[in-house]
Structure formats: structure tokens, C-alpha cells
Write the C-alpha cells for this entry.
Amino acid sequence: MPLSHWAYADIEKLYQGGYVVGCQATPQRKYCPEGTLSRAEAAVFVVRGHHTASFLPPEPNPSDLHFADVARGTWYAKWVAAAYEAGLTRDCEDPPNRGDDRFRPGEAITRAEAACMMARAKD
């Protein structure tokens, strides 16, 4: 990410604070500022925003997995479970997708969904 990017200072603050790690760690750290954010990645972001940057949720029990498409053992399962338990995901989807048993972890999050989750994280 070039130092001249308009969001460099903000992203660097989040990185230094431990809130973001970027899209690639090796062989060289990258943030990919123009890339999309998946719903799974957003769960990490909002859970850390709700708790602290160093917060690490425990591995979920099978009963903690409220979504059919979030399997135990995936890198994001504990984050999605923690976001759900903290009330950060409820009703933060467009109405046609709201209320089903899917989180859609690999899909891009919309700005509206991200705003909903972040507002709940900081409320």
C-alpha cells in the first residue's frame, strides 16, 4: 500500500492498534485497500471493535454455531459466534436474507451491513 494512499494514516493506526492485519502477511505484509471485505473478515473487525484489539474469542461449542454455513474449525467460526453472541449481527442483513440460518461468510459485506454491525459494536 503506497504511503500516498488517502487512507494510509487511518489504516496504519488500525494496524498499529492491532485491529487489522490486512489481506496478506507473507512474504510481505499487504492491506489491499481497494479489495472487498468478506462477511467473515467483517466479523473479526467488529468483534475487535466491540471488545479490544487483542480480544480472542474461544473456540465455539457446536451449540454456539447459529449458522448452517459456518462450520466448526474454520478460521472464522469463533469470530462469527462471538459476533452473534454479542448481538452484532442480528438484523444486519438486507431484508430478503434476514432471519435465515446462513451467515454467508465468503460473500462481500455491504456498507449498510458493516455500518449496522459497527454501530452495534460501539453502542
The chain has two domains: 1-35, 37-122. The mean pLDDT is 89. Residues 1-35 form one domain. The helical segments are 8-16, 39-50, 77-85, 111-122.
